[in-house]
Design a protein that fits this description.
Blueprint (H helix, E strand, L loop, with lengths): L1 H16 L15 E7 L3 H11 L4 E8 L6 H14 L7 E3 L13 H4 L21 H11 L4 E5 L4 H9 L9 E5 L14 H4 L2 H9 L4 E4 L1 H4 L3 E2 L1 H7 L5 H19 L5 E2 L1 H10 L4 E2 L2 E6 L10 E4 L3 E8 L6 E9 L4 E3 L2 E2 L1 H12 L3
The structure holds beta-D-ribofuranose and calcium ion.
Calcium ion binds next to helix 2.
């Protein structure tokens, strides 16, 4: 019996890997990385999701929705319509938090269109939402697959923070976290902060300090990956429901970028998925990152210590008055790999070819 079962599983994994024979969407290719995409869909979130679903290196185990670019309700609707378009009702899609931990929600229809998907109306979803609360689903999957799940958050970090607050025991069981957020070269919301971090700084600080392997794919590297007219034209040459939807979304974004004098749209969220596919796409040295939660001008900034040490100042009493004296350097332990450079052309080619089904 055991032999028969082994034969059956070997045949199954073979068939799954041969294109066009049998590829039940519910099963990832053998050895594919299990990911949970936590997203606020969102135009570039849509690109991230479709890249993940079209990449055999990844096995999307769940999609959890967080408010950010759009409200929680609109985000869930968008996620459901997208998985339906991709014929992937097998993937659980769960709503999560309704608002950031300690502040009011800020939504970004200004950038993402009134429905969050570049005003492209997808058909109603055939898929139903998973009844579980997003953070609970994250906990359940991490516990079901210890050391196998990679979390890919591409929105505010509220759901991830709620998951670790509820069950801190999942932290050592997560394989890694690859998040889109932050910047070490200024923000997009204001001079200091990037949107995903700004929209829930306390949650972000919890996620950065949790103590798990974490890669930050920030604004500054995303800004080096511009999807422009050349890529749009390539994507327009092939067709299919997902291909055409992606063409519409990227056209909306390219036109938007041109209105602001840019030559293309930054691939923020899809790049985080790209790094999950191939970590070599970015150069990411280890640093210690803290999230500023109080600064008057800097709330939501990711403050990265690039030297991984700080000066040790000790208070001394002198006849002329008290002062601090630098006595040495203290090591700071890195808590993140921070992306500082990216193979942009390679990534853009990967994105277009995957969306074309290659
Ligand atoms: C991030 O903010 C959102 O608008 C995008 O989806 C991306 O996740 C970029 O700052
Ligand atoms: Ca996003």
């Amino acid at each position: 019996m055991a032999d028969r079962m082994g034969w059956f599983l070997r045949m199954l994994s073979y068939l799954v890997m041969v294109p066009g024979i049998v590829c039940p969407p519910a099963w990832g290719a053998a050895g594919a990385k299990k990911i949970i995409l936590d997203t606020d869909p969102g135009t570039d979130d849509a690109m991230a999701l479709m890249l993940a679903l079209n990449s055999p290196e990844l096995d999307v185990r769940a999609i959890t929705v967080v408010p950010g670019n759009v409200t929680a309700g609109q985000g869930l609707e968008n996620a459901l319509r997208m998985v339906s378009l991709a014929n992937r009702c097998d993937i659980p899609v769960a709503g999560g938090a309704e608002h950031p931990l300690f502040q009011k929600l800020i939504t970004a229809e200004f950038w993402h269109g009134k429905n969050g998907l570049g005003n492209i109306e997808l058909p109603k979803s055939k898929c139903k939402a998973d009844a579980r609360f997003g953070p609970d689903l994250i906990i359940a999957l991490v516990r079901a697959y210890p050391h196998e799940i990679t979390l890919v958050p591409v929105g505010p970090l509220t759901n991830i923070a709620l998951a670790i607050e509820k069950d801190p025991g999942i932290v050592p069981l997560v394989k890694e976290v690859i998040l889109m957020g932050g910047s070490i070269k200024g923000g997009n919301v204001n001079a200091a902060a990037e949107a995903n971090i700004y929209n829930d700084p306390e949650a972000a600080q919890m996620v950065f300090q949790a103590g798990w392997p974490l890669t930050m794919v920030g604004l500054d590297v995303g800004d080096k990956t511009l999807f422009g007219r050349k890529q749009l034209e390539q994507l327009g040459k092939t067709h299919g429901p997902v291909n055409d939807f992606m063409y519409g979304v990227t056209k909306f974004l390219v036109e938007l970028s041109e209105k602001f004098g840019d030559s293309g749209t930054p691939m923020y969220d899809p790049l985080a998925v790209g790094v999950a596919i191939d970590a070599e796409l970015v150069t990411a040295p280890a640093m210690h990152v803290d999230v500023e939660t109080r600064g008057e001008f800097t709330r939501g900034e990711t403050v990265a210590n690039r030297r991984n040490e700080i000066e040790r100042n000790v208070l001394h009493h002198f006849p002329e008055g008290d002062r601090y004296v630098i006595e040495g350097l203290d090591k700071v332990v890195p808590n993140a790999k921070v992306s500082i450079d990216v193979k942009a052309d390679k990534f853009l080619e990967l994105f277009v070819s995957r969306l074309q089904g290659k």
